[in-house]
Amino acid sequence: MENFESFSVPYKINPEYKKKTAYFSMEFALDQALKIYSGGLGFLAGSHMRSAYELKQNLVGIGILWKYGYYDQIRNPDQSMNVLFQEKIYSFLQETDIKFDININNHPVWVKALYLAPETFGTAPMFFLSTDIPENDYLAQTTSHRLYDSDKAARIAQNILLGVGGAKLMDILGFEPEIYHFNEAHALAASFYLYNKHKDVKKLKKQIAFTTHTPEEAGNEKTDIRLLEKMSFFAGVPLNTVREITETWDDTFNHTLVALRFAGLSNGVSKIHGAVANRMWRGYENISKIIAITNAQNGKYWEDAELARQIKKDNYDKYIKRKKELKQQLFDVVADQTGQLFDPNVLTIVWGRRFAAYKRPDLIATSERALELISDTKMPIQMIWAGKPYPMDYGAVSIFNKLVHLSKKYKNVAVLVGYELKLSALLKKGSDVWLNNPRVTREASGTSGMSAAMNGSVNFSTFDGWIPEFAKNGKNCFVVPEVDINLPVHEQDHLDLNNIMETFEKKVLPTYYDTPEKWFEIVKNGYNDVMAQFESGRMADEYYKKVYNKI
Question: Whole-model pTM above 0.90?
Answer without folding.
Answer: yes
